[in-house]
Amino acid sequence: MADYFQEMGWQPLSEGQAPNHLLHFARLFRDYNIFDESLTQSLAPPASKSVVENLPSITINGQGVKCPVCLKEHSEGETVKKMPCNHTFHAECILPWLAKTNSCPLCRFELATDDEDYEAFRKEKIRAKAREADIEILHNSMFS
Amino acid sequence: MANIAAQRIRREFKEVIKSEEVAKCAIKVELLNDSYTELKGEITGPPDTAYEGGTFVLEIKVPETYPFNPPKVRFITKIWHPNISSVTGAICLDILKDQWAAAMTLRTVLLSLQALLSAAEPDDPQDAVVAKQFKENIEMFQMTARHWTNVYAGGPHVNKECDDKIKRLVDMGVEEHQARVALSSYNWDIERATEQLFS
């Protein structure tokens, strides 16, 4: 059985460290579904600069694949940027987009951002889902 | 207009024209100027909804930063729907705001609007009066939406009762559309509508 901190994904305060009241408020709001709405309503922040810089470039071989942003077909031998979700774009098409928001224009796969608040929020969301799944498993193991 | 936006609209145009939805007459786009900045869209009301049989015209303005920013779309045809302003035609739809993605196209926008007509989101309203009616009296809402579709979008369902009530107000000197809005907003209660119009 995981301990309390592990289960919540939190860190115990270290010596001399003050609690982060803002974070506690954020969690409180999250638990009462107060902020879901306001946060999902605004555009997600830009992708992290280092992640964007490290996006691999690949050379197209074969035909028939279009860049989803400008809709031009990639030509044989052309160099394009490849996202972790395997979607390919012209550099001049994907870079302005990732400077605006962090997701793949085609499938909304999210890249990391440099925005600490957003990353914390995203981590919390993933954790909340995992917790739900854990409870479900626990429930099923008791009642099936 | 920035080159990338114009080029992309040109390509999309071909895509829409070739698409099977156009073949089925479900959606349509037309250019209004040579610079690809203003277009006219058209969608048909989805079957089995109050909008069935109607044709809805949309104003589409393409920003210079397209496709990195969404096109500006509003209904020109008057429509009774919780997420569309019955006054201005302004639309409340996430993909036209913060959920826009650069891979979306005029075709997917028009199809999303058509989907919005069959699945309203009354909890995220653009028109509070319509949304309230939708939540409290869905049959009244359906009847009103069908009547508006008949009058403004060429829908087939004539509602004589609505027409008669409007005519009574018109005979009192009220402008027809104003009479329709007042009656629609007060669940077709002619006394309350009259009261509001003459107060």
UniProtKB/TrEMBL annotation, chain A:
Membership in a protein family: Belongs to the RNF181 family.
Residue intervals of the RING-type domain: 67-108
Biological-process GO terms, alphabetical: protein ubiquitination
Reactions catalysed: S-ubiquitinyl-[E2 ubiquitin-conjugating enzyme]-L-cysteine + [acceptor protein]-L-lysine = [E2 ubiquitin-conjugating enzyme]-L-cysteine + N(6)-ubiquitinyl-[acceptor protein]-L-lysine
GO cellular component: cytoplasm
Pathway where it operates: Protein modification; protein ubiquitination
Function: E3 ubiquitin-protein ligase which accepts ubiquitin from an E2 ubiquitin-conjugating enzyme in the form of a thioester and then directly transfers the ubiquitin to targeted substrates. Catalyzes monoubiquitination of 26S proteasome subunit PSMC2/RPT1.
Organism: Tribolium castaneum (Red flour beetle)
Record-given protein name: E3 ubiquitin-protein ligase RNF181
TrEMBL record, chain B:
GO terms, molecular function: ATP binding; ubiquitin conjugating enzyme activity
PANTHER family given in the database record: UBIQUITIN-CONJUGATING ENZYME E2 (PTHR24068)
Recorded name of the encoding gene: AUGUSTUS-3.0.2_03444
Entry keyword Repeat: no
Pfam family, one: UBA
The name this protein goes by in its record: E2 ubiquitin-conjugating enzyme
Swiss-Prot/TrEMBL keywords: ATP-binding, Nucleotide-binding, Transferase, Ubl conjugation pathway
One annotated Gene Ontology cellular component of this protein: nucleus
InterPro entries to which the protein is assigned, alphabetical: UBA, UBA-like_sf, UBC, UBCD4_UBA, UBQ-conjugating_AS, UBQ-conjugating_enzyme/RWD
Superkingdom in the source lineage: Eukaryota
CDD domains listed in its UniProt record: UBA_II_E2_UBCD4, UBCc_UBE2K
Annotated catalytic residues: 92 (glycyl thioester intermediate)
Its EC number(s): 2.3.2.23
UBA domain boundaries: 157-199
Entry keyword Transferase: yes
Family per similarity comment: Belongs to the ubiquitin-conjugating enzyme family.
Record domain UBC core: where: 4-154
Gene Ontology process terms (BP): protein polyubiquitination
